[in-house]
Amino acid sequence: MRPPREFENPLCAQVDGEVWFPEKGDNSTVAKTICGNCIHITECAEWGIKHEAFGIWGATTARMRQRIRKEKNILLEQPRVEDWLGNAKA
Ligand code: SF4
How many CB atoms lie under 10 A from the CB of residue 57? Predict the structure, then answer.
């Protein structure tokens, strides 16, 4: 599984960073709509479910991913060093 920073031309790279980390009560529709048009949505959501406690990843909110982790008994894991060094294995 590769980290989203390795995705080719992700749509989020074209949009202000604050959109991706909404505060409680903020509307996340813009970010989720952008994700809905991104070719990496599935891979990104899988990464987010496994590794991200905050922000919008693959059109999922932090709360959505928390619920998915609970339902599927998935533990949130810190990314491995290899993931961030760019030589992650799928
Ligand atoms: S799915 Fe969304 S957060 Fe993930 S790479 Fe695409 S635009 Fe960025």
Answer: 27
Separation of CA 58 and ligand 1 centre (Å): 5
The pLDDT tens digits of the residues spanning 7-48 come to 999 999 999 888 999 998 899 999 999 999 999 999 999 999
> The tokens 């809905």 sit on which residue?
36
- Please tell me if the CB atom of residue 62 comes closer than 6 angstroms to any atom of ligand 1: no
Residue/partner pairs of 71-78 with CB below 8 Å, 24 or more apart: 74/49, 74/50, 76/50, 76/51, 77/50, 77/51, 78/51
Instruction: Please identify, by atom number, the ligand 1 atom nearest to the C-alpha of residue 41.
Output: 1
- The pTM for the full model equals 0.87
- Please tell me if the CB atom of residue 31 comes closer than 6 angstroms to any atom of ligand 1: no
